[in-house]
Amino acid sequence: MFIAIDETKCMGHGRCYAVAPELLTDDDEGFVAERGRCWEIPADLVGEAQDAADACPEGAIVVTETAPADA
Ligand code: SF4
Asked: One matching Pfam family, short form (predicted)?
């Protein structure tokens, strides 16, 4: 599974890294530091990734089986 974070949608609410601390971190301004990235996630962190996607009020986080074509 892959996680992709759309940097144009991220508004820095900080909910994602609060619910997925093993996967995501915050930068100095409160945005998720991994915004704009897409990467493969280990199986044991898929649940956490989905929690992060569900927690983001901007819909900036997508969890998919394959990497998005434009990633
Ligand atoms: S919850 Fe969404 S908007 Fe907030 S920091 Fe995470 S990705 Fe950005």
From this structure: Fer4_15
